[in-house]
Amino acid sequence: MGEIVLDVQNVTKQHKNHRGIFHINLTLHKGDVFGLMGPNGAGKSTLFKILVGLIKADQGKIRFFGHSLDTAFEQAMKKVGCLIEKSVAYEHLSALQNLQLAARFYADIHPKDIEEALKTVGLYEVRKEKVSDFSAGMKQRIALANALISNPVFVILDEPITNLDLDGMIEVRNIIHHLSTEKGITFLISSHSANEMEKICNRVGVLFKGELLKIGDIDELTERQSLEEFYLNCVQTNGVKDHE
Ligand SMILES: Nc1ncnc2c1ncn2[C@@H]1O[C@H](COP(=O)(O)OP(=O)(O)OP(=O)(O)O)[C@@H](O)[C@H]1O
After folding, report:
1. The CATH number of the domain where 227 resides is what?
2. Which of 6, 42, 136, 155 has the fewest Cβ atoms nearer than 10 Å?
3. Candidates 40, 55, 192, 211: which one to mutate for ligand 1, based on the most atoms within 8 Å of Cβ?
4. Containing domain of residue 186, as a range?
5. 152 pLDDT exceeds 70?
6. Is position 26 within any domain?
7. Which spans of this chain does the record mark as coiled coil (predicted)?
8. What does pTM read for this prediction?
9. Does a structural domain hold residue 19?
10. Count of structural domains, the chain
């Protein structure tokens, strides 16, 4: 196994409504395309927001490339790109202008990096066109390009395929596949769709009511059943746990 990219140890976050995530342990290695599956409200976004520092965990330890998120945030996040929550591309701006705007949040993005990100997501030819003329899939590809402009080696994508039609899903899937195989980028992706995760990921975890019920290699999990069957089994047999 390769270098440890992300190490999550015993992370808990309880929201005021008592929901949240509880005692999450997760280790990702270089080259992983890890899919976090779970129904609405399972806690996927809560975990992702904690990982990128948008909210703070109640307890637990998180390390990126050995750097603690708590004590060395900038070091930890240096090589991490993310797409959290619904993508917001400004409709009246072009694809290029959107990325130029996003680049201002970083210290050292070169125009070449933006050009490269646009090429990677297949929007270079239409970079000067307004986003209002783009399809949902193209808008999602801008969001992906946004996550790529800093040349990350680890990319976190919260629901990158939700709300996309089949063409859009295939486009995003192909980009992830390309980045993983050609550039060795490690991914953590959340989705409701077991079918899609089966096509994209090499490992998956099932998050349900804030608990990470199972983690496994796709090849092993799908030896005798589809990933969807495994997922449904997992969720149904592990039933109800409340944290009141
Ligand atoms: N800021 C908050 N305050 C209170 N409760 C919250 C907050 N954020 C999330 N929750 C609750 O925590 C639970 C997990 O929500 P979360 O958004 O992490 O789930 P999710 O798996 O990402 O769901 P979805 O697929 O619908 O995005 C939900 O029950 C939600 O109501």
Report:
1. 3.40.50.300
2. 136
3. 40
4. 32-42+78-237
5. yes
6. no
7. none
8. 0.92
9. no
10. 1
Confirm whether 2 is domain-assigned. Answer: no
* pLDDT tens digits along 50-65: 999 999 999 999 999 9
Pairing state between β 67-68 and 186-191:
unpaired
Ligand 1 proximal residues by C-beta, below 6 Å: 15-17, 19-20, 38, 40-46
Residue 243 has pLDDT above 80, yes or no: no
pLDDT for the residue 239: 64
> Within 10 Å of residue 37's Cβ, how many Cβ atoms?
29
User: Nearest residue CA, atom 1 of ligand 1?
Assistant: 15
What phi, psi does 68 have (nearest 5°)?
-75, 130
Q: Which amino acid is at 69?
A: L
- CB 135: neighbour CB atoms within 10 A? 13
Share of the chain above pLDDT 90, in %: 70
Q: How far is the CA of 17 from the centre of ligand 1 (A)?
A: 10
Report yes or no on 200 lying in a domain: yes
User: How many whole angstroms from 161 Cα to the centroid of ligand 1?
Assistant: 19
